[in-house]
Amino acid sequence: MASPITRHYRNADFVIAWDGENERHVYLRDADVVSEGNRLSHVGKGWTGTAHEVVDCRGRMLMPGLVNIHGHPSSTLEGSGFIEEVSNQVMGSTLMHDYYKLLNLPPAYKQANLRAALCELLKGGTTTVLDLSYAPSTDTYPAVEGWIETLAESGLRAYAGAQVVDALHTTPNGHTPEWRWNTQGGQRGLQEALTIVDEAEKHPSGRLHGLLAPGQVDTCTAELIQELKAEADKRNMPVSTHASQSVVEFKEMIQRHGRTPVEWLHDIGFLGPRTILGHCLFIDDHPWLHWAHHNDRRILAETGTTVAHCPWVQANSGRVMHSFASYLAAGINVGIGTDASPMNMIDEMRWTVIGCRVAEGVKQATTTGQVLHAATVNGAKALGRDDIGRLSPGCKADILSIDLNHPLMRPVRDPLRTLIFSGVERPLRDVWVDGRQVVSDGEVVTIDHAAALAELAPGIQEMVPLMAKKDIHGRGVDEAFPMSLEVRA
Questions:
Q1: CA 127 → CA 121, 347, 391, 479, distances in Å?
Q2: 362: Cα separation from own chain's centroid
C-alpha cells in the first residue's frame, strides 16, 4: 500500500488553530499546517520535515472547514427568485410547504439542482453537511437519482438524512393549517430510509454517513419518532427533526398534548446528545408566545440536545432567535445550518451575530469567536465527532484558505472578524476535505458548477407552467410569486 501524501501548507499569515487544553480556537501568526493523507499531523510554527506537496500560504489565513448541521440542498435552488418575498401571512412557516409544492422540478432536472447546490455549499465554506434532501414518505422531497453517489462525487463530508413523516402540511384556504395523516406511508418511509442510511454508511469513500430524521415534530406520531430513534441508536448515528420552528406548530402541539414541542419530544425519549432540533426558535420563553411556564431551555441543556440555528431563513421571514447568546449561556449546544438557499455558511455566521444583536438590543450580545465555535466545534459535537471542525494534529484535513489580499479583507487586523462582516465567501479561495482539494482558486474542481446551472435552467422553465395545475388555489406563477418590478414587453 502506498504511503499517504504529506502536504505542507507553509507560512500562513494566520492559522485558526485549536487549543485543546482550553477548548477554544486561537490565532497563530506565521504558522504551518501539515497533513498526512486525510489527517493533520502538525499545526504550529517551524515545521522542517519533507513533504510530497508544498502549498504556499503567504497572504492567506487557514481555518477549519465549517460544519453545517441543517440543509436541504436538493430542494432549494429551484426556489431562487421565487420564494424570497412570499409567505402565508397569517400562519407563517408551517404553511410555506404549500409554496414549496409548486417549486417541484421535473425529475430529469433534480440531479443538476443537487450538483449546483453542493457547489454552492463548498464555495460558502461548508466541508461537512447534514443533508436533509430526501423524504421517502412524501412527494415534496422525492428521491434524487444517484443522491448518495453525487454526495460522494462532490468531495463533501456528508450525513445523508432521510426524512420520514406520517402527515403532510396543507391548507384549504391559506390560513387554516391541516395535517393529512398516512401512518402506513410513514412505515414505508421508515423502511426506505433505513436502506438509504445503510447505503451511505457503507460507501467506500469513508466520508458519507447516515442520519435518521422524523421530518417535523407535528407531522410524526410518537410511535414513528421512537422507532426512528431506536434504529439510530442501534446504528450509533445521530437523529434530527424540525421542532419549535413556528408559532403555529407550538400551538398545535399544545392543543394535541398539552406540552410544548420540546417537552413532548423529551416525554417520548427523543432528546439527547445525538439529537439535533432544526430551528428551535419558538421555545416556551420566546416573547411572541407569552407562555406561562419556562422549561424548554433547561430540558435542552440537561439532555445535551443540539439546536441547529439557521438565522438567514428565519430573519428573511421576520423571525429571530431570542437569542443565540442566551441559548449558549443556558448551556445549550447550538450549531449552525444553512437550511435553504443561499447555502453559505460564512454568511450564516454573519446573520447569527446580527440576529443576536437585534434580539438582545446591544452590539456586544455575542462575538465572532462564539459564532465560529458554533459553526465548527458545536456542529461536530452534535454529530458525535471530535475530529472535524478544528485544526489540530489527529483531526481530519478539512481546511479553508482565505485570501488576505482580497480587497474586502484589507486592511488586515482581525481576519476572522473581517471575513464574517465584510468578505463573507468572496475571499475563500481553496478548500480541502479529507486531505483532497475540492475548491481551487474559488472554483469547485469535483463538479462542473457552470454546467450544472446550465442544465438546471430549462428545468425551471418547464416547472413554471405546471404551477397552476399543482396549486390548490389555482394560482399561476405571477400570482403565487409576484415579480418585484412590473415587467414590460
A1: 8, 15, 13, 38
A2: 27
CB contact set of 162 (below 8 Å; sequence gap of 6+): 134, 135, 136, 189, 192, 193, 196, 197, 210, 211, 212, 213
* pLDDT at residue 91, as a whole number: 43
Percent residues over pLDDT 90 in the chain: 82
The torsion angles phi and psi of 157, rounded to 5 degrees, stand at -90, 120
What is the percentage of the chain residues whose pLDDT exceeds 70?
A: 96
SS3 23: coil
Whether the CB-CB separation of 305 and 275 falls below 8 Å is answered with yes
256 vs 479, which has greater pLDDT?
256
Determine the residue type at 214. Answer: P
C-alpha angle 89-91-94 in degrees, rounded to nearest 5:
120
**Grid cell locating 207:** 466520508
Give the pLDDT confidence score for residue 102 in this predicted structure. Answer: 81
- Bridge partners (DSSP) of residue 243 are 279
In this model, does residue 88 exceed pLDDT 90? no
Q: Helices 183-201 & 222-235, crossing angle to 10 degrees?
A: 10
CA angle 23, 24, 27 (to 5 degrees): 140
pLDDT digits (tens, 9 = 90+) for 433-475: 999 999 999 999 999 999 999 999 999 999 999 888 877 778 8
Residue 219 CA to residue 183 CA, distance in Å, equals 10
Residue 78: CA atoms inside 13 Å, Cβ hemisphere, count?
30
For residues 207 and 239, what is the distance between their CA atoms, to the nearest angstrom?
18
Amino acid 95: pLDDT: 54
